[in-house]
Amino acid sequence: MAEECSHECSSCGVSGCGDRTVAAPSTLETNKRSNIKHVIGVVSGKGGVGKSLVTSLLASEMNKRGHKVAILDADITGPSIPKSFGVDSRLTADADGINPAKSASGIEVMSVNLMLPEGDMPVAWRGPVVSGAIKQFWQEVNWGEVDYMFVDMPPGTSDVFLTVFQSLPVDGIVTVSAPQELVAMIVGKAVNLARSMEVPVVGLVENMAYFKCDDCGKEHHIFGEPQGEAVAAKYAIPAVATLPMDPNFARLVDEGRVEAYNVEGALDGIIDQIIATAAAADEAEE
Ligand SMILES: Nc1ncnc2c1ncn2[C@@H]1O[C@H](COP(=O)(O)OP(=O)(O)OP(=O)(O)O)[C@@H](O)[C@H]1O
């Protein structure tokens, strides 16, 4: 404990103090038209590794299993979810709040890009404004009944990361990596931050792990040997998935038809783990 302790643990910089108390996160209420049962954050320690693509695919796979699914695009300054799903309709609102957009298969989507006059307008907001927007998406959108909400997080472990974990009742995170050693190390930062906030890490997706040659069928490890299994073992992550580098991803994202991609069961283990984590959370609440 610091020599002159003010008992203000939240503002104290002394590490390793045995008397530190961590304030329980006070999650925000949603509006009366929302009943969001489970929230899964999709994170990556680094930009451009395919986090938004994985968010879209996880949401689509969960939707295909018959669950009601929504995506909150918390990547406020680099929002790409509406484009992936071909959603560009103007949002409507009523006395209760903003109505989310809906994808072709019925996934609800809320993103700052749906509020801009033009999709290519930049969003150069400072951290607190970004955090405020995410809170508004949670509180002021008429989400309705949602079994699983996926939150596409901004890359890295910024203050927005903390906002989401402190304001939304996140059940677990899925972390996305590409197979470079540095990226794997960065995954560790996101995992450790989530754990320090007592949020379980339910899965690791190693994206762009290989490229399969159309002609000979051989798998080429363009970014080096896959290391998802090793990283998952190191951080005790229960489910691992591997996705190839596939031009069809980029094409379907460009066409706004990400839901049409067939992942051929590659994400089943992670989807199962998300459902198991949600069931455990429900049981603990009862
Ligand atoms: N496995 C893949 N095969 C081919 N293209 C991919 C793959 N994964 C992602 N991409 C493409 O790479 C680009 C970046 O992907 P994405 O936007 O999902 O990354 P991100 O991690 O969310 O980026 P940021 O953190 O900057 O938002 C997109 O154009 C996407 O279509």
Automatic annotation (TrEMBL):
It holds the Pfam family ParA. GO terms for molecular function: 4 iron, 4 sulfur cluster binding; ATP binding; ATP hydrolysis activity; ATP-dependent FeS chaperone activity; metal ion binding. One of its GO terms (biological process) is iron-sulfur cluster assembly. SUPFAM superfamilies: P-loop containing nucleoside triphosphate hydrolases. The keyword Secreted does not apply. Keywords: ATP-binding, Hydrolase, Iron, Iron-sulfur, Metal-binding, Nucleotide-binding. ATP binds at G45, K46, G47, G48, V49, G50, K51, S52. InterPro entries: Mrp/NBP35_ATP-bd, NUBPL-like, P-loop_NTPase, YlxH/NBP35. Belongs to the Mrp/NBP35 ATP-binding proteins family. Homodimer. Binds and transfers iron-sulfur (Fe-S) clusters to target apoproteins. Can hydrolyze ATP. This is Iron-sulfur cluster carrier protein.
